[in-house]
Amino acid sequence: MPKKPCVPDVVNAGLPSVAVRIPSHPVAQRVLRACGVPVAAPSANTSGKPSPTTALHVYHDLKGKLPLILDGGECQVGLESTVVRVADSVLRPLREGERALSPGMRYRHYAPGGELTLVKGSQENVRALCLAMYREAVAAGRSARILAFEEHLSDYAGAQALSIGSLEKPETVAHRLFNVLRQMDEEGVEALTCEVLPAEGIGLAIMNRLSRAAAFRIRNADEE
């Protein structure tokens, strides 16, 4: 929203607008009530890295930089808030191609240390391309994983495949996504291929985060 003069420039990097988040979590609400004033704070992770979904993730990212971590349990949804612009009393989601007005709008964000490639197309072709990329990476001496939906894990017998949740229940993908990306960092995996969701409903939010994590590196298995 347009920023009023009472909001210090340091809060929003000198931009003419300011974003306001009202958390639903009861622990966060109690902290804000205890403070008695609006709180300006960054996300609890190193910029550009997969977002934390547990207090332990925050500890690994920021240990030694924080005097206290308040553990309210793991995230209920797993994805950050969508950034919207308020203009003439209308809420409009910020989309691709617009100037980045927040860190989450950057070209590459939520990114694991390894190279992540998204693979779209028919499941038969996606399976074939994911396996081909996996074998190519292993043959080159790189550690590799295939990130697949729970329903498709059996398609990747003989390869190291990991579930990112259920295709039939996309909310489970939202819940697991950043946790899986962090696990891949902890294991030092260098090459990752990942199946994709239809970009509709919560799948649209998931694909937005996945696309940024992959730096928009997407291959169409039906065209290869």
Mean pLDDT, all residues: 85
Note the main sheet: 5 strands, parallel
Indicate the percent of residues in helices.
Answer: 25-40%
Strand order of the largest sheet: 5-4-6-3-7
Total helices: the number is: 5
Describe the protein.
With 224 residues, the chain is an alpha/beta fold. 29% of the residues lie in helices and 13% in strands. The protein contains five helices and seven strands; from the N terminus they run H-H-E-E-E-H-E-E-H-E-H-E. The chain has helices at 26-35, 55-62, 123-139, 170-186, 202-213; strands at 84-87, 90-93, 115-120, 144-148, 161-163, 191-195, 218-220. A five-stranded parallel β-sheet has the order 5-4-6-3-7, sandwiched between helices. Strand 1 (84-87) and strand 2 form a beta hairpin.
Explain the layout of strands and helices.
Blueprint: H1 26-35, H2 55-62, E1 84-87, E2 90-93, E3 115-120, H3 123-139, E4 144-148, E5 161-163, H4 170-186, E6 191-195, H5 202-213, E7 218-220
Parallel strand pairs: 3-6, 3-7, 4-5, 4-6
Antiparallel strand pairs: 1-2
Helix pairs in contact: 4-5
Summarize the structure.
The chain has helices at 26-35, 55-62, 123-139, 170-186, 202-213, and strands spanning 84-87, 90-93, 115-120, 144-148, 161-163, 191-195, 218-220.
